[in-house]
Amino acid sequence: MMRQMLAFLSGSAGCIVFALAIIVWLHVFLMAEEHVPIFICLVTVVGLGVAANMLKVTDAVRTSLAEHERLWNLCALAVPLALIWLFREDHYNLFLIGAIMVYAVAVLGLNVQLGYAGVINFSCASFFGIGAYTSTMLMTGAGLPPLAALLLGGVMAALVGCILIFPVLRTSGHYAALVTMAFALLFKVFMDVNDFFGGPQGITVPPMTLFGIDFSHNMLFGDTELSFYLRYDLLCLLLLGLAFCFVRRLERSWIGLSMDAVRSDDTASACFGINISRWKITAFVVGNCLSGLAGALYAMMQAYISPANFTFSDSLLFLSILLLGGIGNMWGVILATVFVVLIPEKFQVIQEFRYLIYSGLVLLMIIFSPKGLLPRQPRSYS
Amino acid sequence: MKPLLCCANLTMRFGGLTALDSLDLDVLEGEILGLVGPNGSGKTTFFNVVTGIYRPDSGNVTFDGEDITGLAAQEIYYRGIARTFQRSRLCLDLSVFDNIMIGNHKALHLGFWHNIFKRREFKAEYELFREQATQLLCALNPELADRILKPVGDLSMIDRRRVEICRALISRPRLLFLDEPSAGMTPDETRQLMDEIVALDTDGQAFSLVLIEHEMEVIRRITSRCVVLNFGRKLCEGAYETVTADSQVQEAYLGRELEE
Ligand SMILES: Nc1ncnc2c1ncn2[C@@H]1O[C@H](COP(=O)(O)OP(=O)(O)OP(=O)(O)O)[C@@H](O)[C@H]1O
Ligand SMILES: [Mg+2]
């Protein structure tokens, strides 16, 4: 009986069952407003996760993932699309879904840095912020079209990363970590004291407009009025999809391999001709570019940014998402982002304690499953 | 035969300790040279200096007629010297194939455009290297070829050594350094691995090999010449019989073994 079920799940059916389960669970969870049902939802998912692990369902899912990758990709696209459609009139939940996708892009960037090349970065949120502020200033100050401003936000984050990487490369271990921490603190202070960037009160961000469509207006679809966040969510999904494909191709290439070699053993890498700085710089720049793009889109979606959005604690939040999800596993990153974004939103009471809870979770994870929720699998080059 | 590698007057100090002391050492084209000596006599340091991990305090290293003293490790690899490490330095969570490809770095196309957007060409390249890696693995242990996509951390000690040797061989080096390939293995496994290494050499692929090894029996069986180090200095060199007959060597090295 059990064996038949596992065989069933490790085929293409496993993928569809899994995707449906996620849609249903996320829908229920996002709809829940009282603490008791929210809590029940969380307990259910943790219980299901533990049971799945004990009954070897996770192994079946892994087999299915390896064998039916294309179908999984399609389902991964269907889940957010279904949720976006289900919440089409609901501003708040659509914003949350968009935020999850944007955060996931930034953590994918961090994953390239820390997960592949092993470059520590405690200032991910600052690069997110650089993207946000750059695109805002380019739109309000220089009058650039939003799409160009968004792309230049990513470019700017990459460029600033090019400068920061030099002190990072010259130091190693804890000292390199300190350099990035210092940068995170510096960025926040710089934004706070500079009135040009709106100072501590922040600055309003013009909305995205694409092909003449202003993203800040609701739209009519038959009789229903669709939330304006729906367009943003579709754009976020596009960005996440592109970032995901890009990072996956990067991982499954000689570039990803060289980065992995640099992370695991720099002496051995040097003895086989691998240029260590080259790959660390590449990873740092690529990762920051992704964070910058994500930040720029987040700013437009939120319509308002202030230095308080890009603090050192936010950088720690990005790092904890990566650690929880499983360093190097992109599906794990997305899964962990869902939980880390949603839980404090759903339990407003824990807002104040959320860093305490995350650090607790990260500690538990390091003790019981050091490779994260979904450990990284050996590389395939398909 | 002309020497492929010429080391003259090499000295390497670590603080007050002289690990290599005015060492002159030649490796001839196509030979298997055994490098022996008691613990701490500077054998590994010699490898590290030649492969560019350390820069010697004085002396010269000439490879194939060119001065390579103090070049970066990367540069030395591109000139055609590959090695294994005394304490295995594989990436345990990467697959067997990935580890071997790290050694193939000079053949990989590393351009962004090629890797990310030209996936069809990339895959053709991948298939080619996959075939090469499989052939190399088959020469050592055909069973390993079936586990080519498994993480190296799941393999036994001897298989890890084999992967390390394949990683060094895939770049078709002209000079191969093996640092105690039999460390941590049973005598049977050692014999098996050494047979495989000797078989490799007769494969038509001409390369010189320097082998650090404590088991004198292995040295006798597979090397054509050996050099004995003691306190970073060359004590003696020549055929196995000449070296073992040397009284200084017996005192410094074999004597110690006999006492044990
Ligand atoms: N990086 C280093 N820093 C300081 N001392 C070193 C370093 N590397 C080696 N040494 C010292 O140099 C001497 C020679 O070491 P080496 O590793 O070359 O010996 P070996 O002949 O390979 O010995 P074994 O048979 O034990 O491997 C030793 O005394 C060692 O402690
Ligand atoms: Mg040694």
Structure, explained:
- The complex is a heterodimer of chains A (382) and B (260).
- Chain A has 16 helices and 6 strands.
- Chain A has a two-stranded antiparallel ribbon with strand order 1-6. Chain A has a two-stranded antiparallel ribbon with strand order 2-3.
- The longest helix of chain A is centred in the first third of the chain and has 27 residues, at 91-117.
- In chain A, a hairpin with a 2-residue loop joins strand 4 (219-221) and strand 5 (224-226).
- Helix content of chain A is 73%, strand content 4%.
- Chain A is mainly α and 382 residues long.
- In chain A, helix 1 runs parallel beside helix 4.
- Chain A has 2 domains: 1-86, no CATH class; 90-368, ABC transporter involved in vitamin B12 uptake, BtuC.
- Chain B has 11 helices and 10 strands.
- With 260 residues, chain B is of the alpha/beta class.
- Chain B has a 6-stranded mixed sheet with strand order 6-7-8-3-9-10, sandwiched between helices.
- Chain B is globular and about 60 Å long.
- Chain B has helices at 43-50, 73-79, 96-103, 112-116, 119-140, 142-146, 157-169, 187-201, 216-222, 240-245, 247-259; strands spanning 3-14, 17-28, 32-36, 58-63, 66-67, 81-83, 175-179, 208-212, 225-230, 233-238.
- In chain B, a hairpin with a 2-residue loop joins strand 4 and strand 5 (66-67).
- The chains are: A mainly alpha (382), B alpha/beta (260).
- Chains A and B meet through helix 10, helix 11 and helix 12 of A and helix 2, helix 3, helix 4 and helix 5 of B.
- The complex binds adenosine-5'-triphosphate (ATP) and magnesium ion.
- The site of adenosine-5'-triphosphate has 12 residues of chain B, from strand 2 and helix 1.
- The site of magnesium ion (MG) has 3 residues of chain B, from helix 1.
